[in-house]
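Standup notes, protein team

Yesterday: finished cleaning the Herbiconiux oxytropis set.
Today: FAD-binding oxidoreductase structure.
Blockers: none.

Input for FAD-binding oxidoreductase:
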Amino acid sequence: MTITTPGFTLTAETVRRLVAVVGDDAVHLEDADRDEYRDPYWYQGDRTYDSSAVVYPTSTEQVQQIVRIASDADVPIWTSSQGRNNGYGGPSPRVKGSILLSFRRMDKVLEINRELAYAVVEPGVRWFDLVDALEASGNEDLIVSIPDIGWGSVVGNTLDSGGTYLPYGMDFQAATGMEVVLANGELLRTGMGGVPGNKSWHLYKRGLGPVLDPLFVQSNYGIVTRMGYWLMRRPEAYAPLYLTIPRGDQLEQAVDIIRELRLSGVLRGVPCFYNIISLAWQFPELGEYLGGKGALSEEQLQELADNSGLGRWGFRAALWGDGPVVEHQLAKITEAWGAIEGSSIVHDHTYTKDQWGPFESFTEKVHAGVPTMDMMNAVPTGIGHLAFSPVIPLVGKEVVEFERLASEFIRENLDENLSAGVLVTNERSLIFICNLTLVLDDEAQVRRARDTLKKMVEHFGTLGYGEYRAHLDIMDLASEQFSFGDHSYRRFCEAIKDAVDPKGILSPGRHGIWPAAHRE
C-alpha cells in the first residue's frame, strides 16, 4: 500500500475561525511555539512532522467546533494531551501541517467518587494533578496506578497503551467510560454512558452491544475529552521488592518462576525487570561502564552485575493487601526465588496504611502511586531513546530466545549492548522493550539508530513478533507486520475509519490507520 501525505497550510480564514472559538492567545502559529510540540528525542533539523498551528481548547464544546472547522477546511487534526510521549514521536503529527490540538488547558478533575473509588478526568490532567486533587479533597487514601514519570496525561497515557504498575495496571484495567468527539462534531458516550443519567457509566466496562472503549485506544476514530479512571484504596500493607537474577543463564528459570507466581495470584500489578545495561542508565555512579566505544563483552557485563550488586537482571515488584496476606505472599516469593542460585531479595520496609512513606527510591514511590520525575532526571543530558517493543509469551525459553536474537541484532547493527526493560502485563504475556540509545547532538548516530529500529521491526516481523506500540516514524511499518489474511486486521480498521471519518480529518496515519484519501 502506498501512502500519500501532502503538507497542509492554514488559510487566514481558518485561523480567523479558530481564534473566534478559543481566543487569540490559544492559537499559536509561530515556530517557537510550535517547536515545543516536537519530540525532543528526534533530530531537530528534520521538519517532517511539523504542525501548522497549536490550538488550546478549554472545553468539549470548543473541541466540537474546532473539529467542524477543520472538516470545512479539509485540514487534519492531531491531538496531544500533554505531549510527553518522548521517544515515540512526542506530540508531533504524522501528517505535516496538521492542526495540533493540545489539551493542556483542559486539565480539570471532574469528579472524585470516594465510595466507589474512581475519578473522572479531562485529557490535560497529569498524574501529578490527579494525586494533588485526591489530597486536596481529603481522599489521599485513594491511590492511583501510575507510570514511571508523573508529568504525562492520564488520558494520553491510556490511549497509547502506556503501562502503569499497581494492580489496575494489569491489562490496562483502570480506564472505564469515555466521552468522545466524533469527526462530524457529534458527542458520543461509551458503555452505560449511552443512557442519559446512567450512574454506572464509569463503573461497568461494557454496555449493550459492541464494547467501544477499546476502539479509541491507539486509533483515530474520535477525540476523547473525558474518561473515568478506577482508583485503589490504600492497603493495610505495602511491600516494595527488588529481586536479583545474578547471571544471564538464569533468566529462563526466573521468568518461569515469575509466571507461576503470577498465575497463583501472589504477584499482582505490573512487575518488571531490566537487564544490567538498562539498570546502569538509572544509576549515575555506574556511568564509567557506559558511553565507551563498542559493546561490552560477556565478562565485562558480568563484572558490572557483580560489582554493582544489581544482578544481570533486576526484578522490581510490590505486594499490596492486608498485613498477614502480604507476609504470606512475601514468604511464597522468598521460597520460590531461593531456587535461583546466588539470588537475593531486597525488602527494606513494609509500609502501612497509617505510615505511608516517606518513600526512598523512585520505584517505591511509583508502586505506591506517588508520581515522580526521578527516572527522567536520572537520564544524562543529551541522551534519548527509541524502542522496539514486541509482546512475548511469559515462558522462560521464549524470553531467552528473543533476548538472544535481539542482543545479536543490536550488536551487529550498532555495536552496542541490548538495553532491555520488560513489563509483565498479565499472567501470560510480557512486553519486551528494546531501547536504542540516542546521542541527540549526533545526527549520524540518531539516523543509525532509527534505521536499526526499522530493520528490527521488519526482521522480527518475519519471525512472528509484533509491537504493542510504535514510534510515529514507523507506525506504518509496524502495522505492516500484522499481515494475516492479506492484512485483514488493517483493512477492517480502515473500513471503520472510512465509515466514522470519511474525510479523514482525525489523526490520519495514527498507528498505521489511514483514511481512503491517503491510500492508493
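Follow-up from PR in the comments: The domain at 474-518 is CATH 1.10.45.10 (Vanillyl-alcohol Oxidase; Chain A, domain 4).
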